[in-house]
């Protein structure tokens, strides 16, 4: 028997056992996405959704979280107003693709959260790769993320562990993702582009409640993938 191989397997086994899969359900109603921007009149415009789907891997040994989250564009409402919501969908898709095929997506790899303590928030910082309708940031950069993670142990009411994450992207530049009437087809967008209606800089708040996945649970199959383009995207 190759004792070197056996020794390597013994060393690898504990690390593998420490990696645990977590999921955020888009229908549970206990997670939220909110993008806030001021306008020229000083009013605050907020795009919100509670339909967030995530697949996360928490490596307890390394103290890192990796994964992917997606928010469908059709789930986002702006100021609970139909007209604003419609305009927002046009800006996001540039009127070049179906909103049903569009999503805000974030991919993060080995974000350092350290050792999570039961019912005690642990602060963290990291970077995420975002795409909007499959479009990456024009400069190829990432978004800086900061927040806190809180571990909930199993209880009589919940058989598996859960992690609550509160995080914010404090400076989000929508023009970097071509979310603007000047990139949008149609006469209405041409009129909107004549006025500086909404600030280019805003913030994104994320509230995620991730529960340990059952064994055999499939990973998130969000579409489009960060490196792909939406069908009909003319970039």
Question: What is the compact description of this entry?
Answer:
With 235 residues, the chain is mainly beta. The protein has helices at residues 3-18, 82-93, 187-192; strands spanning 19-24, 32-38, 44-49, 53-59, 64-72, 77-78, 103-112, 122-132, 135-136, 143-152, 162-173, 201-212.
Characterize the structure shown.
The chain has helices at 3-18, 82-93, 187-192; strands spanning 19-24, 32-38, 44-49, 53-59, 64-72, 77-78, 103-112, 122-132, 135-136, 143-152, 162-173, 201-212. It has a single domain (18-212), classed as Lipocalin (Beta Barrel), CATH 2.40.128. Strands 1-4-5-7-8-10-11-12 form an eight-stranded antiparallel beta barrel. The protein is mainly beta. The longest helix has 16 residues, at 3-18.
How many strands, what sense, and barrel or not for the largest sheet? Answer: 8 strands, antiparallel, barrel
Instruction: Kindly give the count of domains.
Output: 1
The CATH class assignment is Mainly Beta
As for the CATH topology, it is Lipocalin
What is the percentage of strand-forming residues?
A: 35-45%
Low-confidence stretches: 1-17, 216-235
Shape: elongated
Number of helices: 3
Radius of gyration: 20 Å
Structural class: mainly beta
Major sheet: arrangement of strands: 1-4-5-7-8-10-11-12
What is the terminal separation in angstroms?
A: 57 Å
The CATH level-2 architecture is identified as Beta Barrel
Global mean pLDDT: 81
What is the chain-wise order of helices and strands?
HEEEEEEHEEEEEHE
Helix content estimate: 10-25%
The CATH superfamily is known as: Lipid/polyisoprenoid-binding, YceI-like
Number of strands: 12
